[in-house]
Design goal:
Chain lengths: 131, 200
């Protein structure tokens, strides 16, 4: 019974403090930063105790197959789901979740879980092409 | 003659279900079922999140694509279970028997599998981040391409297991017996290998 309550709370926590992405401070700053470059916003949801998140941030994002293309075409926003307000409409099931959002605030694609560097690089190229 | 046929038919019908029909009904109705007989039951595509299923017997059952999020499967018998795409996220599976489980692509993130038996288990491509495998038994376990980042292997013998292409970033190996190839791969993947781990 206790466990079911935890599961319910976990789901309920996902919709707290919702605001449209266009009013999200981190999103506004990321757009301002990349105004002329037309970068895609990569918004990654993390928690402190998530090894997959650490793997993506410390290993995959800095892999030679990923980093040059990632820094050239993407602006990264990190949201800790236990500490930060999450934008409206960007719910998640599983951490990390990565949303790829264009300047208009339209979510082009969502990836859940970690990826190996080569597979993630392929995803980035595919998402960039369809922006 | 008619009576004999009827008896044969009834016996045949009974044999169709290895599981206890009362236990099966209880599980579907209440989602909790401790020490239940669920052998060969079809439990695919169902949600058992948070369920208490300790010591239940699932041998030969079909659990494909079902969700056992934070369920308690301690000491459960999961031998020969079909569990492709099943989600065991943060489940407690200590002392469980997973011999010959078919769990290709299943999600075991954050599960506790202490003292469990994974002999001949098909764990290919599983998402097994942060799993606790302390003193688990591995005989010819197939972990190929599994994601085992931040998992804990403590006092295990992995030498007969297949670990080609596994993700072992920050995976802990303490007092583990490993083959030379497994050790080389673990080091390349930035695993954390204690000095008392033996590479044969």
């Amino acid at each position: 019974m206790k466990k079911r309550l935890w599961v319910a709370l976990l789901w309920g926590a996902m919709s707290v403090n919702a605001l449209p992405i266009q009013k999200d401070e981190a999103f506004i700053q990321a757009i301002a930063k990349s105004q002329n470059s037309q970068k895609i916003i990569l918004m990654i949801y993390t928690t402190d105790d998530c090894p997959e998140c650490a793997y993506m941030k410390k290993k995959v994002f800095h892999d030679p197959a990923v980093e040059p293309f990632l820094t050239q075409h993407f602006e990264i926003i990190e949201k800790n789901v236990h500490r930060n307000a999450l934008p409206d409409g960007y719910d998640y099931f599983g951490i990390p979740t990565m949303f790829f959002i264009n300047h208009a605030g339209v979510n082009k694609e969502t990836l859940v879980g970690s990826k190996r560097p080569k597979a993630f690089a392929d995803d980035l190229h595919r998402i960039w092409k369809k922006k | 003659m008619k009576n004999a046929l009827l008896v044969i038919f009834i016996l045949g019908y009974i044999n169709l279900f290895a599981y206890d029909t009362q236990d099966y009904k209880r599980l579907l109705e209440t989602k909790d079922c401790v020490t239940c007989d669920l052998r060969d039951a079809n439990l695919s595509d169902l949600d058992f999140s948070g369920s208490d299923l300790q010591r239940s017997d699932f041998r030969g059952a079909n659990l494909s694509r079902s969700v056992f999020l934070m369920a308690d499967l301690s000491s459960a018998k999961l031998n020969d279970v079909k569990a492709s795409g099943t989600v065991f996220w943060k489940a407690t599976m200590d002392d469980a028997n997973l011999t010959r489980i078919h769990a290709k692509g299943a999600n075991f993130k954050g599960t506790s599998l202490k003292h469990s038996d994974l002999s001949y288990a098909d764990m290919r491509g599983t998402k097994s981040w942060k799993v606790n495998f302390t003193e688990a038994t591995f005989v010819h376990t197939d972990f190929r391409k599994a994601e085992l980042g931040d998992a804990k292997f403590i006092r295990n013998d992995l030498r007969s297991s297949r670990m080609d292409g596994t993700l072992l970033w920050q995976t802990h190996f303490e007092s583990v017996q490993m083959s030379a190839n497994q050790c080389r791969h673990a080091k390349e993947e930035e695993a954390l290998i204690s000095t008392d781990t033996v590479c044969h």
